[in-house]
Amino acid sequence: MSQSTWRVLGATGFAGSAIMTRLQQEGINASPVAAPRLATSAESAGQIISEARRLESVIDYLADSFAGADVVVNAAGLSAPDQQDLTSLVGANALLPTVVVVAAQRTGVKRVVHLSSAAVQGSRPVLDASESTSPFSAYSFSKALGEDCILRLREFINATAQAGAAPGSAASDFPPAPSAAPAVVGPHHAAELCIVRATSVQGSGRKTTSNLARVSASPLAMVAGSGDRPTPVTSVHALAEYVVSVGSFAGDLPSIVLQPWEGATTGSVIRDAGRKNPRHVPSFALRLGVKMGHLISSAMNEKLQGAVRRAELMWFGQDQDDTWATENGLLPERRIGSVLREAHTASGSRR
């Protein structure tokens, strides 16, 4: 689909702007789409899908924006790991992607790539592309809920398309969109939906990255054991390259793909971001620190869950199963080292 037409929601955001830059570099015709701001009190996939189908004015707006597009990338959402307000988190990270999929299907879009987060799987030893999730915070819950909605829509769209009654077609109860100039949707048309789980993405201008540089240069910079454990700390450039590769992939896409490992270890992250060697602390001592952090967070209504998880990731890392990307030759260029070194320089300049 390298010669196709793309639309990108969240194109001015951290990840979306990098994706737009990558599309321009590859000569792919792409246009930004402003993402509507949504909020909801719904907390189940069924409720969110029902609510999304009632948002006809939003569907019409998105469908009109998607007209003529082959690929839609949803890079919009609320990246706020420490936020507790579920109404805005679920609105941005679950209801919005659901409406995007509904509008894309009813406009005849061929492929939708939704940017999710590996945070949905929590602190399990190995991140993967399975449907299994273990959310640990309001943010990760909202992202996991968004994935659940998309997976359910994917199943419904494929089933109805096989029966010749695809949403948006003449045989469906769900009309084509936009209502003012309805698209022609075939009875067997099914938009291909793919979730990309981004990992711990770093880049210039991101607060998370500047904080990582400051901590890495401080006495708090430490790792468990030898510091050679793999970590899912990655660059926004690699994420953008991977998203474009997934959207352009010639074959059938899995329902979920994981952003590949970029070669970073717990020790290399500290050395690049802090320009110093980390302190090596016995694993049992840091495990105790994580447990204490969870206890304190629990006493504070889970307000510190994001901070505790970031410390755990810095100390212990996390492995990744990027088999699909490896087998299909979609491993992006590794640039995390240079991104972290630039963050260290920028942090020093500010000080």
List keywords for this structure.
single chain, 351 residues, alpha/beta, Rossmann fold, two-stranded parallel ribbon
Question: What can you see in these coordinates?
Answer:
The chain is of the alpha/beta class and 351 residues long. The protein has a single domain (5-205, 231-262, 318-335), classed as NAD(P)-binding Rossmann-like Domain (Rossmann fold), CATH 3.40.50. 46% of the residues lie in helices and 13% in strands. The protein contains twelve helices and twelve strands. The protein has helices at residues 14-25, 45-54, 56-66, 86-107, 138-162, 207-216, 236-248, 266-274, 283-299, 305-316, 323-327, 336-350, and strands at 5-9, 29-33, 71-74, 111-117, 126-127, 192-198, 200-202, 222-224, 233-235, 256-258, 279-281, 319-320. The strands form four sheets. It has a six-stranded parallel beta sheet with strand order 2-1-3-4-6-10, sandwiched between helices. A two-stranded parallel sheet has the order 5-12. Strands 7-9 form a two-stranded parallel sheet.
